[in-house]
Design goal:
Elements (H helix, E strand, L loop, with lengths): L2 H4 L19 E2 L11 H8 L15 H10 L7 E4 L1 H13 L6 E2 L8 H7 L4 E2 L21 E4 L11 H9 L6 E4 L20 E6 L12 E4 L2 H12 L8 H12 L1 H24 L3 E2 L6 E5 L5 H10 L2 E2 L1 E2 L9 E4 L3 H25 L1
Parallel strand pairs: 1-11, 3-4, 5-6, 6-7
Antiparallel strand pairs: 2-8, 7-8, 9-10, 10-13, 12-13
The chain binds 4'-deoxy-4'-aminopyridoxal-5'-phosphate.
4'-deoxy-4'-aminopyridoxal-5'-phosphate (PMP) binds next to helix 4.
Length: 361
């Protein structure tokens, strides 16, 4: 082997969901919002001064930081912004997880966490969720180099009550605890209000899900001014201009239309609740998600077959191989029309399965 080959970094990258570019598909595989962003976003983008694009953007994205701080009634010194929460989370791993002790996160969770840990050579351990896919807080009462978990968790959608999160914080005053709230707006309690009591808490959120702006890549973190300063120091050691001018303008405009945000949230949670009931009626096991997706197991547990059958009908959902997840599919909540198309396909598939079963039996 050539010597230089030995110097190439080998990593096992995260695999994002497919982004097929066909208008007729039902895309329920990446937890995007089925509704467009507020019209105020389009207006802000249309009003952008194109000639200003020759300038670098504000490296601190101060306008967006201020708008987020105002919306959540915090001080701008408590807000960090990045290119989607993936960027913010990667910066958090790099900034806060620098111990020889293992970072802790659940065995079934956002599959990017182990990728960042490997990339940054951070040791980690993954305490198992219980048999109902719930996090056991006691698993986090031990020495560690930091803690991270999503609330609600992904891909299960299961939310933890705030008192449990506070207990984890109380047992970990010497660690940084990151709560990844990518899906919190769909019905889970936010840990934001614990910020004033815990200077070791970081809360990460995104514009990609509840605010319909996955394409703009805007994420943010809340924490004590000391933690936010540390995050910014690392960011400025990496890339000064992470937020482009369009993303800054779109983010500010989006926050200004809270009414639209609440309306679309309510549509999605209503659709989620009847989708849960209808799937249960068809014999599916449905976890009690508080997110904009459901984690479900078909009656005969043949999730991979169903994933492929749906794909043949241009309905995209997400399947995660692995011993604890292989019997499940993660299905994003779409519009009622999209869910009807899903149910049409599911009912056909179940009927075909029964016919096959009768033939064999
Ligand atoms: N956290 C969790 C738990 C997620 O599922 C996702 C979406 N893949 C993200 C963070 C990142 O989302 P984004 O980078 O679009 O903000």
């Amino acid at each position: 082997m050539k010597n230089w080959k030995k110097n190439i970094r080998q990593v096992q990258p995260y695999t994002p969901g497919e982004q097929p570019d066909r208008p007729d598909i039902v895309k329920l595989n990446t937890n995007e919002n089925p509704y467009p962003p507020s019209s105020s976003v389009e207006k802000a983008l249309a009003e952008m001064d194109g000639s200003a694009l020759r300038l670098y953007p504000d490296p601190a994205a101060s306008g967006l930081v201020r708008a987020i701080a105002d919306f959540y009634e915090l001080d701008p010194s408590q807000v960090f912004v990045g290119v989607g929460s993936d960027d913010v989370l990667a910066m958090c791993f790099l900034t806060f997880f620098n111990s020889q002790k293992p970072v802790l996160f659940p065995d079934v969770t956002y599959s990017f966490y182990p990728v960042w840990a490997d990339l940054f050579r951070i040791p980690f351990e993954t305490p198992a969720l219980d048999e109902d896919f719930c996090l056991r807080k006691e698993d986090y009462y031990r020495e560690n180099g930091g803690i991270i978990f999503p609330n609600p968790n992904a891909p299960t959608g299961i939310a933890q009550p705030l008192p449990q999160i506070e207990e984890i914080l109380q047992h970990n005053l010497d660690s940084i605890v990151i709560v990844d709230e990518a899906y919190v707006d769909f019905g889970a309690p936010s840990a934001i209000r614990l910020l004033e009591r815990y200077e070791n808490l970081v809360v990460v959120q995104t514009f990609s899900k509840s605010r319909s702006l996955a394409g703009m890549r805007i994420g943010y973190a809340f924490g004590s001014p000391e933690l936010i300063r540390a995050l910014n120091d690392v960011k400025y050691s990496f890339n000064s201009y992470t937020m482009n001018q369009a993303a800054i303008a779109a983010g500010i405009a989006c926050l200004a239309d809270a009414l639209y945000w609440r309306r679309t949230l309510s549509l999605i949670t209503q659709t989620r609740e009847w989708t849960k009931a209808r799937l249960s009626d068809l014999g599916f096991t449905v976890l009690d998600s508080q997110a904009n997706f459901l984690f479900v197991s078909p009656p005969d547990k043949n999730a991979k077959d169903l994933y492929e059958a749906l794909r043949e009908r241009d309905i995209y959902v997400r399947y995660f191989a692995g011993p604890r997840t292989e019997n499940y599919l993660r299905i994003t909540i779409g519009t009622p029309l999209q869910m009807d198309r899903l149910f049409g396909a599911l009912e056909d598939w179940l009927r075909e399965g029964k016919r096959e079963g009768l033939k064999k039996g």
